[in-house]
Amino acid sequence: MSDLFEITYINPGVTSFTRSAGGMLQMETSGDLFAEITIRRTYPMSRPYEYLSVWTKDDKEIGIIRNIKELDDESREALVAELKLRYVIPAVTQIISIKAEPGLWTFQVKTDRGDLQLLMRNIHEHIQSIGVNRLIITDMEGKRCEIKDTESLDAASRKQLSKVI
Predict the structure, then answer these.
(1) Where are the domains of the chain?
(2) CATH architecture entry for 92-162
(3) Per-residue pLDDT of the chain (165 residues; tens, 9 = 90+)
């Protein structure tokens, strides 16, 4: 027997997102107010502003927003701000070094949020290619950073990266 799942899409014409007096994101739709909601990306890398999942504070899904562009300006701004808070991924601006030691790789990088050290056992399990020249690097502890465009890195950084890619 197969389980059937019904997806509830949120109607952007009768929905608004705002911040409460306490700063919590809230949603009003068809006269119903949902206080303290969270937004989760269903496709965080390929469609960061499409198919956004809206959840209650009790961890129950309310529904899916097909595309943030369908919402009014105030709602769109509230969601973009919330997503930036929830999905912080430092952008690599420079690779200082990539070193291999027995059983461990160490990346020293500069990001738009400061210096970062990443430790990995099997480097190829921790580097994910997202499109052309874009990489997500996740270390053993779950720390992540992004190289938005490998070609935009300085020559020394590209040389360091060429050791492993």
Answers:
(1) 12-86, 92-162
(2) Beta Barrel (2.40)
(3) 445 678 899 999 999 999 998 889 999 999 999 999 999 999 887 889 999 999 999 999 999 999 999 999 999 999 999 998 887 889 999 999 999 999 899 999 999 999 999 999 988 889 988 888 999 999 998 888 999 999 999 999 999 999 888
Nearest to 127 by CA among 152, 155, 147: 147
Q: Would the CA dihedral through 147, 148, 153, 159 be positive or negative?
A: positive
Query: What's the CA gap between 51 and 40, in Å, rounded?
Result: 9
SS3 call for 88:
coil
CB 29 within 8 Å of CB 15: yes
